Amino acid sequence: MTPLRKAALAAIASASLVAAGCGSGFDDNGSKTQQSSGPASLQIMIASSGDAETKAAKDAAAGWATSSGNTATVTPAQDIVQQLGQALAGSTPPDVFYVDAARFADYASVGALDAYAKGDAFLPRLNESFTYQGKLYCVPKDASTLALEINTDLWTKAGLTDADYPTSWDQLTAVARKLKASGVTPLAIGDTRDRIGAFLVQAGGWWVSADGKQATADTPPNEQALTYLQSLLRDGLAKYPKALDAGWAGEAFGKGKAAMTIEGNWIKGALSSDFPTVKYVVKELPAGPKGKGTLSFTQCWGIAAKSKFKEQAAAFVTAMTTADQQMAFAKGFGVMPSRTDAQATYQQQYPDDAAFIAGAQYAQGPVNAPKMDSVLADLDAALQGLATGDPKAILQRFDKNAKTALGG
């Protein structure tokens, strides 16, 4: 499914949710829903990454149900944005469900979520992704961050050593030139805000304000970031996946068409499965003018404001987010834990993921504001033409569109 098609479906689901939220009985604490104190029959909807995650979630839910005397049915959604939007707008939504950070504000803004969360045990930067108007609604279930993957064979072929791993923009440019001279594309990078946004953070900027209420794209730091990436693209030091005949940057990297890429910890499974012979190392993203910066991608365990079993649902979430259970999920399907007290254990067991773990301490989450689907889709379309576009014009267009959405 194309990004624009996904955005269209998301807009439809969000629109139905927002419409239903007006006068539907949604409220911040769900006090209008009669609660049941007896054994619960919890319905849990997940957006599964595959069979491994589905099995892990079902096994964990079955274990909780057996020990608690409740029942718990886990359903993997085919399209969770569409299905969850429709379910929340109806009268019987799932009790517990995955909420993507990029969608969270749409649900929170209409009172569809129960604000059950206490986030002291979780990484603060992840909690920010699930905070709306100063209130934490749901706890992050896991974490993913972007880092720099480097093909060590292509690196050595270009005459580079471990000492050359880039830690700044200037160093990134320097090694990219050497890689290009050796006959390989230096960097493959995705052509959307979900990769390019990391450069904005490194320059000290972002698309919107921290509270999600104001558009902040048209600023010197953001222009500096896009201008820098544009220079890499124009000089052939970086290329988008399409220019490398690849569906995503990880594929281009796996095929040896690029010596470096910027991807999340999900790339491990993809490379192991599809390109098992590729030798690579993972490093933190090079720092920009304002220091280190990366992006986080996370989901939370949401509880429906209309659930009749909020107490039992909260107990279920607590069980799913213990340090031991998060480590079991990490082993089962490759996610990183979101709990602060599980970071050291994870890094000890998965030392090659040190760069991803480090990034979780300072990562920037997605745009946390409602009604932004079409605005963000338009931004991605503009970024896809960055090589020949006008960085300032792209930022100004985003601000104009975002101000309309945020003020609506």
Automatic annotation (TrEMBL):
Signal peptide feature range? 1-19
One Pfam family this sequence matches: SBP_bac_1
Q: Which domain of life is it from?
A: Bacteria
The record's section on Gene3D superfamilies has: Periplasmic binding protein-like II
Q: Which UniProt keywords apply?
A: Signal, Transport
Q: Does the keyword Transport apply?
A: yes
Which InterPro entries does this entry report, sorted A to Z?
SBP (IPR006059)
What does the sequence similarity comment in the record state about its family? Belongs to the bacterial solute-binding protein 1 family.
* Name of the protein in its database record: Extracellular solute-binding protein
The major lineage groups are:
Bacteria, Bacillati, Actinomycetota, Actinomycetes, Micromonosporales
